[in-house]
Amino acid sequence: MILQVAIDTPLRQVFDYLPPSAQAQDLPPLGVRVLVPFGRQRLIGILVGIVAESAVPAAKLKSALEFMDESPVYDPVTFELLRWAAEYYHHPIGEVYAAALPVSLRDGQPVSASIELWSLTEAGSEELARPSSRRAPQQRALLSWLAERSSATTAQVTEIFKRAHLKTLEARGWAVPNLSHSTGLGLADDLGTVEVHPGGLALTGAQSQAVETILAALSAFSVHLLYGVTGSGKTEVYLQVIAAALAQGGQALVLVPEIALTPQLVDRFRRRFSGGVAVVHSGLTDSERRDAWRAAHSGRARIIIGTRSAVFTSMPKLALIVVDEEHDASYKQHEGFRYSARDLSVMRARGAGVPVILGSATPSLETLENAAGGRYAKHILPQRPGAAQPPRMSLVDLRRHAADQGLSTPAMQAIDQHLKAGGQVIVFLNRRGYAPSLFCNSCSWVAPCAHCDARMTLHRRALKLRCHHCGAQAPVPTICASCGQALLPVGQGTERVEETLMRLFPDAPLARLDRDTASARGAIQSVLERVHSGDARILVGTQMLTKGHHFPEVTLVVILDADQGLFASDFRATERLAQTITQVAGRAGREARPGEVMIQTQFPEHPLLQRLIAEGYESFAASALEERREAGWPPYSRLALLRAEAKDSAGLDSYLRAAAALGHVLNDSAAKESASKESAAKDGAVKILGPAAALIARRADHFRAHLLIETTVRSSLQRFLARWLPQVEALAGPKGLRWSIDVDPLEVD
Ligand SMILES: [Zn+2]
Ligand SMILES: [Zn+2]
């Protein structure tokens, strides 16, 4: 017997071993961890196959050292999903299996462990009963939180409270940790019980129809597009379907674009289902991640809410998947293992035989096309009765109206009016920093990044020039490097818009939300809190504003620059612009007050903007799909992008030309084969386009270029890549060459 082991290395292969001599008789199931010798190291891999023979000569085969588990560390569906994903995305299988596990489990920590369950002591209850003193409100809050439940894990406590407060309670004898042995796979202990609290909202007809249809399909694979504007009640549909899935003993997986930006959603889940909700995101420490993973794997956690990588969480009783804001670009990983969590959710649901709900106010064109073709069921949720009317949208022609630092007169007047009427205002600009360039009026010199074909962005508060492409920083020059004259900041970033608004509306407190203000832990929450409490009257921000916040008092949204997306080279740029405009507009006038949206543009007659404003997102999407069909872009074609970068630009170019030539040879032989079978028409020819330079042709001192692989048939793309990539891998390239393959890229760049 030969063991096939997936090891976390960049090599696209599995490694063969003999079973450990002591354990040779009794082989565990696939999916367990196994310790193996690897060169001079000992590494932990995943057992992914057991075969009779190896291509490695018997004398060279080594024995594995030890099996580390008796049962698999993945549920069976996820185990197969990972194998499928490694093949589909053509990524090294060992890295794919490793990516699905918390680091401590990759390092060999046990799958189950005893966990601490905190509960109040008698002294703690007495302390709580004492008349409240003003001292230590956090400790009191923790006391009463613990009093409300019989016990809580350390992870549950520290998600809400500081660890230090828990330790203080312990030191004072008010709370004690009891050790409880976490049970193994499938045996839910008492922590797994979930209390479902009835929802506050009665369902509309459309909501209950969606709930009923999905519930009727609960024990089989199906995909449901839940298409509803912000405020139409998508979350309530998720909650009710999840409650039913839980009632049947199942687990539910809920994917969201970004946890920090959607605290309201997580709160709603916690309020509805006390106990059994685990949250997984990139801000967790590895031990928090491991605890959540263990809770999911053991069945103790019944609902997992997480970002992209949570799609791989081991959930043996998975009964339902929800992908909220399914159009969001963050579901695609942009480096390393370039998977789409949205697409893998659909594959996982298929494997598990359960429904998946894709929710959005602005579904991706792919999803709309799948719904139009009948592959996905489509449920439309109209605006809830009693909710605010959709906001009034208008275009401001920047050619006719003078702008003060990017703000046109009509926009300024509208801001003034809405503030005077007591409303809040959102100003959206998808560009952070103070000004996107520093310009010399006398010789036209522009501060460049020394390492990229890009300009440096001025960050005035930090007094730095920063490159948004490579992260390089430089001091702000006082005079032109070329002619010695004074320099001017040109164009607007959020920092400069903030400054302008503070000057124009000195009495309106302002908050800014972008990557610069949100970098500190907890900073996002405090900005959101200032808007909710009404303390901030104006909110300036980037893309981060578009993600599902509920701001009931916002009555005006100003989009400063719609033109960034109108003429971008990427085929998805207009789709993204329409989604952004629609999503930002959805923040306005959500309750009692009617909303207004103003879009500033140099091109008010542009058909995309006209259509979006006059007829809405769905009408825009229909015409955008028509354009894609004519141009042969996805979803009417299948793409893969071979990206490469190197310091030697000529070497990079000849490498990509050689790779393309190998592809053309494969294509010719495939064409001959299929001609002989007379199936050429059905087979979908593969086109190899390029090499083409990337939009930023040099970044961080590396030249960047790509080859685009395009076909109409998914299987022929897969067949081509499977034959071509090993040849590309064997090809010699310039020194320091890095390359990657991106199947279903979001951007062709
Ligand atoms: Zn100059
Ligand atoms: Zn740079």
Short description:
Helices cover about 35% and strands about 25% of the residues. The chain has about 750 residues and is an alpha/beta fold.
Residue fraction in strands: 15-25%
Task: Write down the Rg.
Answer: 28 Å
Poorly predicted runs: 181-192
Helix and strand content put the structural class at: alpha/beta
Q: How many beta-strand elements?
A: 34
- Helix amount: 25-40%
Shape: globular
Strand order of the largest sheet: 13-14-11-15-16-10-17
Q: Which ligands appear in the coordinates?
A: zinc ion
User: What does the average pLDDT come to?
Assistant: 89
What's the helix count? 23
Report, as a whole number of angstroms, the end-to-end distance. 46 Å
Could you describe the largest sheet, including whether it forms a barrel? 7 strands, parallel
Descriptive report:
With 749 residues, the protein is an alpha/beta fold. It has 23 helices and 34 strands. The chain has a seven-stranded parallel sheet, sandwiched between helices. A six-stranded parallel sheet has the order 18-30-29-21-28-27, with helices on both faces. It has a five-stranded antiparallel sheet with strand order 2-1-4-3-5. Helix 8 packs parallel to helix 9 (234-247) and helix 19 (607-615) runs antiparallel to helix 20 (617-631). The two termini are 46 Å apart. Mean pLDDT is 89; it is low at 181-192. One zinc ion binds at residues 440, 442-443, 445, 480, 482-483, 485.
